[in-house]
Amino acid sequence: MAVKKRVLVVDDDEMLRSELVEQFALYDEFETVDVGSGAEGLSLAKSQTFDMIILDVDMPDMQGTDVAQLIRSAGIATPIVMLTGNTGEASEILGLNSGANDYVTKPFRFGVLLARLRAHLRTFEQSEDAVFTVGPFSFKPAAKKLTPPEDPSGRPVRDIRLTEKETNILKYLYRAGGKAVARDELLEEVWGYNSGVTTHTLETHVYRLRQKIEPVKGEATLLLTQPGGYSLAMS
């Protein structure tokens, strides 16, 4: 099962929020969280990981542009698409200056919004800022590291450092969405065309990667062996 993209919808218009949640529910690729105020949206954006944020410009408690600025100030690079009823050029510039990636004017067709979201998701996944969830870890390919969840006792957790090849193996398997990837395909994608590299090289890297990420040593629960290849457990 492919990993669902988490979308945060922040808008004080309850009817519009409900409509968006219903529309997103028709697509298996999305999981939606919705709130009705800028403060709630900001709090969630800081405390949870989302793949996309849809943010209304005009809300009673605070302007969406201010929320976007605070999200960016917190170091969160998640793509933001802003919604507004104002068609003025000044508002568009203000929205983009706040750190938003795009701007959609109400009323809009859901198909148009969906196309914009998918385009930004594709771009973001290739960027240096992308963060993915792999099992209990936050996976940051650009930094070549996995970050474990916070320790309930409050003790600091230590990042798991990855080699470039380990990073690329995880990234490619993640993008396969849980489907099995043949060994030859992984070799080509991670090492490129090189007749000197064999499947034994790949198997060695997979073994070392498992030593780093599997909760129980010797048990493959995240990086799975499949007939002819490997897959990443998705939940």
From TrEMBL:
Database matches in InterPro entries: CheY-like_superfamily, OmpR/PhoB-type_DNA-bd, Sig_transdc_resp-reg_C-effctor, Sig_transdc_resp-reg_receiver, WalR-like, WH-like_DNA-bd_sf
4-aspartylphosphate modifications at: 56
Pfam family, one: Trans_reg_C
Domain of life according to the entry: Bacteria
Domain OmpR/PhoB-type: 129-234
Keyword Disulfide bond: no
Keyword Thylakoid: no
Keyword annotations of the record: DNA-binding, Phosphoprotein, Two-component regulatory system
DNA-binding region: 129-234
GO cellular component, one term: protein-DNA complex
Domain Response regulatory residue range list: 6-121
Any one GO biological process: regulation of DNA-templated transcription
GO molecular function terms noted in the UniProt entry: phosphorelay response regulator activity; transcription cis-regulatory region binding
Name of the protein: DNA-binding response regulator
